Amino acid sequence: VVINKVGGGGEVAVRTLLNAKPDGYTMGLFTVPAMLMKSHELRTGWGVESFAPLANLVYDPAVVATRADAKFSNAKQMFAAAKASPNNLTVGILGFGSNDHLTFMDLEEVGGVKMRAIPFGGSAASRTALLGGHIDLFVSTIGDVLPSIRDGRLKAVGIVTKERLDLAPGVPTFLEQGFDIKGRGSSSRGLVMHKDTPKEVIAQLSNAIAKTFKDPEFIAKAREQGLPIRYMAPDEYGKFLRDANTRLAELWEATPWTEKGTK
């Protein structure tokens, strides 16, 4: 049974998981970096060590898109426009501290430019504003942007991957265009459980998930929906979460975007 626990940007869902019996019957969908970032921004009372990693499901690379009729079509042209008019190029994001915001920070740092972040309540609102000509760029993930690229309404300036994705072979990477974007805003979505969940339960569930990722029907459905699936077993996923947490802690310490007194 899937229960959508909304509220607090995921905080209600996390609390539901951590207050549940660690018997293997309750798991949570965990998004990185968005959820982990909250444990640095706020006094959450939980952190990466509060969970037992079960499996990563999706790794959704960050992408920068613009309208199909926009004046620039690639990263060099975008950065040139930003340098020519500092703080004038507008970029839609989902809010400060979000995956999109981290990508925005990466873009400014690597491009040596200053742009203007415009926060929206959701990706649909940001995309609508872009299509309506109210903002210049839209930062999101390829899974979210791909349908609009496929139907010709948007074009991708670049994707934050080392190589082009099979899902979107026509989308150029920032790296091939000469810009090594860090990828802190790329989104992973995986499953975690209470840290006290028995290891044998974790093993049984992770094995079942691993089999699912070999199912041709599952693979085809994910591709149809534009989801870049990437399975990680518990040990690999746990290291991935810890490494991400370390990077986010360093980022927050260096460039906090809210008053540290609110943590």
TL;DR?
By secondary structure, this protein is of the alpha+beta class. It has helices at 11-19, 34-41, 75-84, 99-111, 123-131, 142-150, 199-212, 216-224, 234-254, and strands at residues 28-32, 51-60, 62-67, 90-93, 116-119, 137-141, 154-159, 187-194, 229-232.
Question: Could you characterize what this model shows?
Answer:
With 263 residues, the chain is an alpha+beta fold. The protein is 39% helix and 20% strand. It has nine helices and nine strands. The strands form two sheets. The chain has a five-stranded mixed beta sheet with strand order 5-4-6-3-7, sandwiched between helices. Helix 2 packs across helix 9. The longest helix is centred in the last third of the chain and has 21 residues. The C terminus is likely disordered.
Order of helices and strands: HEHEEHEHEHEHEEHHEH
Indicate the proportion of strand residues. Answer: 15-25%
The major beta sheet can be summarized as:
5 strands, mixed
Counting H and I runs of at least 4 residues, what is the number of helices? Answer: 9
**Low-confidence sequence ranges:** 259-263
